[in-house]
Design goal:
GO molecular function: antisigma factor binding
Order of helices and strands: HHHEEEEHEEEEEHEEEEEEEEHE
Number of strands: 18
Number of domains: 2
CATH superfamily of the largest domain: Lipoprotein localisation LolA/LolB/LppX
Largest sheet: 10 strands, mixed
Structural class: alpha+beta
Helix content: 10-25%
CATH architecture of the largest domain: Clam
Keywords: Periplasm, Signal
Distance between the termini: 31 Å
Subcellular location: Periplasm
Strand order of the largest sheet: 5-6-7-8-9-1-2-3-4-10
Family: Belongs to the RseB family.
Radius of gyration: 19 Å
Main location: periplasm
Mean pLDDT: 80
Shape: globular
CATH topology of the largest domain: outer membrane lipoprotein receptor (LolB), chain A
Length: about 325
C-alpha cells in the first residue's frame, strides 16, 4: 500500500467524520508528458510483481525520509518526515509535520506477518477465500510507463486506470529495490489532478536508537492499530449492518466503534478504500458532500422504523460512488 497514505488515513479515520487529509495535485500537461515520453508495457507478470512488492517488501524496510504533499484545494506544498522500522516482528511508524506547529502521528502494533484482505487483494492471493473476488486486473487497466528517478532512486512508473466510473486513476512510482511508493499522483474521471505526494529524500536502514530517542512534540497523537483482520481465511460481513450496493471489487475488511455509538465499516478493492460511519441521530441529519483533494465525505440520513441515523461515507472515491453507497445501508 501507499505507506505515507496509510499513516495519513489512520489519522483521518481516527478523527471520524469530516476531517480529510490526502495526497496530490499536479498539472495535466505533466501527466501527458510522462505518458508520451515513456515506453508503455502492460506485461501482466511484471505488473503482478510490482503490486506484490508494494504489499510485502515495503512493510519490511527500515527507512526514514522526507516527502511533500499537495492537493487541488490548496496549492501550497506541505512537508512531512516519516520513520518506519521493524523490531521483534512489529512495525512502528512516526510521521512529523514540517510546516506549521510541531505535530506528530505515531502508530505501532502491526505484526510483520499480518496480511490483511487488502494486502491479499493487492498481491492477487485470494484463492484460499471462500468467495469469488475480483482480481485487480478486472477493475483497473495497468500500464508500466518506464523508469524514472525519484529522491535519487530508480523507480518503475505504474499507471492504474479504472475500468468503471466508481474509482480514480493512479500514477505510482514504485522503488525498484524496496517496493516503496516514492511518488503518487491521483486524478479524477475527467483527468483533472486531485493530489500528489513525492519523496525528496530517502535513507534506508537508519540508526533506530536515534529515531526512538527523538523527543515527541507537545501535539502528538497515537493512531489506532489497523482495524483489518490479520490473515483472514474467509470474506466476512459487517455485524448489525448490510451494504446493499458497493462498486465491483470492494470487500468488507473491518469494523469498530469510534467515539460513542458510531460504527465504522471499512472496505477496499486492494488499491482504493472507503469507510462508512453510522451514528444514531435524534433529529434530521444534514445531507451533502464535503471534499478536500481526492477525499470526500458524503452525508446522508437513514430511518429504520422510529430510529434515525446519520450516515457518512469517507474515502478517495468519486461523489456519485459515495452517495450511492450512503443510500444503500440497511440493518442486518
Amino acid at each position: 500500500m501507499l505507506i505515507p497514505h496509510v499513516i495519513l488515513s489512520g489519522y483521518r479515520y481516527g478523527h471520524a467524520i469530516g476531517l480529510c487529509l490526502c495526497l496530490l495535485m499536479v498539472l495535466l500537461p505533466s501527466v501527458k508528458a510522462v505518458a508520451e515520453t515513456s515506453q508503455v508495457s502492460s506485461n501482466n507478470e511484471e505488473v503482478a510483481s510490482l503490486l506484490a512488492k508494494m504489499a510485502t517488501r515495503s512493510h519490511q524496510v527500515n527507512y526514514q525520509g522526507t516527502f511533500t504533499y499537495q492537493h487541488k484545494d490548496n496549492p501550497a506544498l506541505q512537508g512531512f518526515r516519516i520513520f518506519h522500522w521493524v523490531e521483534d516482528g512489529i512495525q512502528y511508524e512516526r510521521l512529523q509535520h514540517l510546516n506549521g506547529p510541531e505535530r506528530e502521528i505515531s502508530r505501532s502494533g502491526r505484526a510483520l506477518d499480518c496480511k490483511s484482505l487488502g494486502d491479499q487483494l493487492l498481491q492477487g492471493k485470494i484463492l484460499n477465500m471462500g468467495a469469488r473476488l475480483a482480481q485487480l486486473t478486472e477493475l483497473y487497466r495497468f500500464e508500466i510507463r518506464g523508469i524514472e528517478r525519484v529522491a535519487g532512486r530508480n523507480a518503475t512508473v505504474l499507471l492504474a486506470i479504472p475500468l468503471d466510473n466508481y474509482r480514480y486513476s493512479y500514477f505510482l512510482s514504485i522503488d525498484n529495490e524496496t517496493g516503496l511508493v516514492l511518488k503518487s499522483w491521483l486524478v479524477d474521471e475527467s483527468a483533472r489532478p486531485l493530489e500528489r505526494y513525492q519523496f525528496v529524500e530517502l535513507e534506508l536502514n537508519p540508526d533506530l536508537t536515534q529515531i526512538k530517542q527523538l523527543p515527541k512534540p507537545r501535539l502528538h497523537r497515537d493512531a489506532d492499530i489497523a482495524v483489518p483482520e490479520c490473515n483472514p481465511s474467509d470474506v466476512k460481513e459487517p455485524s448489525g449492518w448490510h451494504l446493499n450496493w458497493a462498486p465491483p471489487g470492494f470487500v468488507f475488511v473491518g469494523q469498530k466503534q469510534v467515539r460513542d455509538h458510531i460504527d465504522m465499516l471499512m472496505y477496499t478493492d486492494g488499491l482504493t478504500s472507503f469507510s462508512i460511519f453510522i451514528e444514531p441521530s435524534s433529529q434530521a441529519s444534514p445531507e451533502g458532500v464535503a471534499q478536500r483533494g481526492a477525499t470526500l465525505a458524503a452525508m446522508d440520513q437513514l430511518e429504520i422504523g422510529s430510529e434515525r441515523y446519520r450516515v457518512t461515507v469517507v474515502g478517495e472515491i468519486p461523489v456519485v460512488t459515495a452517495q450511492k453507497i450512503a443510500q444503500n445501508i440497511s440493518r442486518r
